[in-house]
Amino acid sequence: MKKFIIGAVGAIALGLSAPASAADMAARPITKAPPPAIAAVYDWSGFYIGLNGGWARSERCWDFVNPLTGLLVAEGCNDADGGTVGGQLGYRWQSANWVFGFEGQGNWADISGDRISLLFPADRLHARVDAFGLITGQIGYAWNNVLLYVKGGAAVVGNRLEISDVATGLVLATRDETRWGATVGAGIEVGFSPNWSVGFEYNHIFLDDRDVNFTTPAGVFIGTNRVSQDVDMALIRVNYRWGGPVIAKY
Questions:
Q1: CB 99: neighbour CB atoms within 10 A?
Q2: 8 Å CB contact between 63 and 74
Q3: To 10 degrees, the CA torsion angle through 82, 49, 152, 55?
Q4: DSSP character at residue 26
Q5: Given the DSSP bridges, would you call strands 146-165 and 171-191 parallel, antiparallel or unpaired?
Q6: Nearest to residue 57, comparing CAs of 34, 84, 21?
Q7: Which of 12, 75, 103, 230 minimizes the number of CB atoms within 10 Å of its CB?
Q8: What's the rounded Cα separation, in Å, for the pair 103 and 118?
Q9: pLDDT tens across 206-215, in order?
C-alpha cells in the first residue's frame, strides 16, 4: 500500500511539472531571409585624364607643280611609320547604357619615311610627322564596365618635309608645316577598378592636299609640290577618372 501511494504522488508531480517546463522553454526566434545581393554598376560619368602610346602610319603623295602650266607631274608616294606617345583629357556622362563625351588629345611622334623622286631621280623626298592633336566628340554604349565607342572631330598635324641629294645626302630644301583636317575613330575601354580603365583605340586622320613651296637653306625658291597626306594610328590608352563613382543597383 505504501508503494502505491508513493508511486501515485510521483506521477502527479511529474504531470504538474511538464507544463511548467514547456512554458520555460525559449520561444523559437523568427528570422528573415537575407537581402538580395547588391549588383555593382560601373558609372562612366566624370572627368578623366590619361596616357596613350602606340604605332602610326602616314602616307604622302608628291606631285611637282609645273611653274609654267600649273599641271601636276607625279613624283611618287611614300609610307612613313613609327611610334607615338601622348596624353588625353576629357569628360563623359552616362544616361542608362549610353555614354557621351568630348576629349582633347596631344601626341609626340616620330613617323618618318622617304622615297626617290620618279621625276627627279637625283632627289630623295623625306617626310616626318613630329606631333598631332585631336579634338573630338564621343558616343558609346556600355555593358557595365565595358565601353564601346566611336569618335570624330578635328585634327592637327605637325610635319617636316625635306628634299635631299641622293648621292651626297645633302639637304637641298626643307619645310615645316602645320595641317588641319578631320578625324574619325573607334575604341573599346574596360574599367578594372572604380577609377581606372584601359583600352584600345584606332583613329584615321584626313588631311587636305596642300601646295608646299620649297626653298634652300639660303632662302632660294626651288619649286612647288602638291603633297597629299593621311594618318592612321593604333593606340593603347590608360585613363584615370574622377567625379563619377561606382553606384549600387538592387
A1: 21
A2: yes
A3: 10
A4: P
A5: antiparallel
A6: 84
A7: 12
A8: 41
A9: 998 999 999 9
105-152 pLDDT, tens digit per residue, is 999 999 999 999 999 999 999 999 999 999 999 999 999 999 999 999
Domains along the sequence of the chain with CATH: 45-249 (2.40.160.20)
Listed residue (115, 122, 126) closest to 167, CA to CA:
122
CA 40 to chain centre: 24
Amino acid at 68: L
CA angle 103, 108, 111 (to 5 degrees): 120
For the stretch 187-197, what's the b/e string if a residue is b when 16 or more beta carbons lie within 10 angstroms of its beta carbon? bebebeeebeb
- CB distance 50 to 230 below 8 Å: no
Q: Cα(63)–Cα(76) distance, rounded to whole angstroms? A: 7
CA distances to 51, 99, 127, 133, 202 from 147, in Å:
18, 8, 36, 23, 15
Containing H/E element for 66? none
Whole-model pTM: value is: 0.79
